[in-house]
Amino acid sequence: MQKKSSFIHHLCRLAKFWNCTILFEQYISGRSSIIEYLAVKAEQEEEAVINDKLSILRAFGRFLNRLTKYQQIDIIFLNFYDHKLVSNCDKPYIIDPTNPYNNLFGNLPHRFLPTLATCSKETLQRLQKYETNAVVQFEKLFEPQPDLYSLFRSQMNRNRINTIMSVSQNCNEKSKRLIVRRNTFDSKIFEKIKHLMNFL
Question: Which Gene3D superfamilies does the annotation name (predicted)?
């Protein structure tokens, strides 16, 4: 990544920021790397369109579109090893650029990619709406998903909120912030929501 252009660095930062707005109740090892490699692939596709000026929003749209079709993801980077070393595996997969035997999708919770796909579709709808109005309101475009207010309204989601609040990760995955889990849903949970929102 150090030798990449400023465009890909900006796209990766945008994708990782979006990733931090997606709430998922389990810690995902390598989550930041997965998002980064998807962004790199989107940047490569954007650069392949040589007859048009590079667009960060269009590349971000490519990133989101790929996630909506996660079942078809098949990403291999051959900068450091021969393709013959790559083990045969079914889609979806992202082969680790530094280890041809490691599929980064190999041990993901089964709900993680579908969750990202759903959130990607929602973000694409927001993006299309703002592009139609010729104004991109980033504070609306990157509102957290799922909607916390909707979760609060549902009694069935209280345990899920507690789980989300119990473990959250920062954008660069260098550290993990643990938030004490509460077995009851009381007024103090709102303070934890505020804490989480400041953290993200």
Answer: 2'-5'-oligoadenylate synthetase 1, domain 2 (1.10.1410.20)
Q: Does the structure show a pLDDT above 50 at 116?
A: yes
Q: Domain of residue 105: give its range.
A: 6-143
Asked whether residue 156 is assigned to any structural domain, the reply reads yes
Cβ 94 vs Cβ 45: under 8 Å: no
Token pair recorded at residue 35: 């998002």
Same domain, 136 and 160: no
Co-location of 120 and 169 in the same domain:
no
Confidence of residue 169 (pLDDT cuts 50, 70, 90): very low
DSSP states of 91-115: SSEEE-TT-TT-BTTTT--TTHHHH
Contact criterion met (CB below 8 Å) for 73 and 93:
yes
* pTM confidence score: 0.72
| Distance, CA of 175 to CA of 177 (rounded, Å) | 7
Q: Is the pLDDT of residue 145 over 80?
A: yes
> Are 101 and 175 members of one domain?
no
Quick one: 176 and 112 in the same domain? no
Ramachandran angles phi, psi of 78, nearest 5°: -105, 30
Chain centroid to CA 74: how far? Answer: 17
The residue written with tokens 């929501």 in the block is: 193
